[in-house]
C-alpha cells in the first residue's frame, strides 16, 4: 500500500476521505490503524484496509502518515522507530518538531516530512504547510505534495514558522465558522430564515475568498470596492472597527500560535 494512516481522528479522516473522494489515491492503496474501533470502522467504510497494529501498518505501507494527538506522539514514534527504517514518515502532529520526532524514533535512516494541514481538506479546500527542509527524496516530496495538493494548496515553509501556520490555517476554520455564524445571526435578527441566512453568509465568505485567490485582488481592494461613499457597507465596517475586529482576529492567531509553541 502507498500510504498508511496512524490515527484516524478528525484530521486524519479528513485527509483520507479527501484523497479517496478526489482520486488522489485508491482505497486499496491506503491503510489505517487506530486503537478506537469506531475510527477503524469509518476507515473501512471508505474502503481503506484496517490494520490490527501499528507494526502491521508500517510493514505494509511505503509512506506512513502520523495523525495522532501530541500527547501520544512520543510513545507512538518510539514504538514504530525500528520498523520505519528506510521509509518516509509524514507527521501532522501539531507542535512536535522534526528533532523531537527523530529523537523519539531512535533510528537514523528514517526520512521525515512535517506537514501542518487543516480540516477543509475534506472538501478539497485545505491548506498544507510543508517543511521546506525535509530530507524526503525528491520523488517522495512530489508524491506527497501531489496528494495533498489535490485537497487544497501546499505552502513550503521553514519549520520554525509551523506554529504560526498552526495558529493561522489550523485554527482559521474555527474563526471563520464563528464569523459565518455571526453574519447569519445578523440576518436572522432582521427576518431571514436561519437556513437561508447561513447559506448567504457562507457563500459570501466563499465568494470573497475567491476574489482574493482567483481574482488576484488584495483584501483591502475587495473591501474598498464594496464601500460606496456614504453607503451601507462603510457603516458596517465602522461597527467592526469600533468593536476591535481586526485586533481581535490578530490576537486569536497570536494566542493560538503561542499555544502551538508550547504543545510538547
Explain what this protein looks like in three dimensions.
By secondary structure, this protein is α/β, with parallel strands linked by helices. It has helices at residues 10-21, 37-45, 54-60, 70-80, 98-105, 138-149, 162-170, 172-189, 194-213, 219-226, 232-242, 245-261; strands spanning 3-6, 30-33, 49-50, 63-66, 88-91, 111-116, 126-131, 152-157. Strands 3-2-1-4-5-6-7-8 form an 8-stranded mixed sheet, sandwiched between helices. Strand 7, helix 6 (138-149) and strand 8 (152-157) form a beta-alpha-beta unit. Helix 4 packs across helix 5 (98-105). It is elongated, with a radius of gyration of 21 Å. The relative contact order is 0.10.
Strand content: 5-15%
Write down the overall mean pLDDT: 94
Extract low-pLDDT stretches.
none
What form results from the Cα inertia axes?
elongated
The proportion of residues forming helix, as a percent range, comes to 40-55%
The total count of helices amounts to 12
Distance between the termini: 31 Å
- The Rg value, from CA coordinates, equals 21 Å
Instruction: Give the number of DSSP strands.
Output: 8
Quaternary status:
single chain
- Main sheet: which strands, in order across? 3-2-1-4-5-6-7-8
Q: Given the helix and strand composition, which structural class is it? A: alpha/beta
Order of helices and strands: EHEHEHEHEHEEHEHHHHHH
User: Can you summarize the main beta sheet?
Assistant: 8 strands, mixed
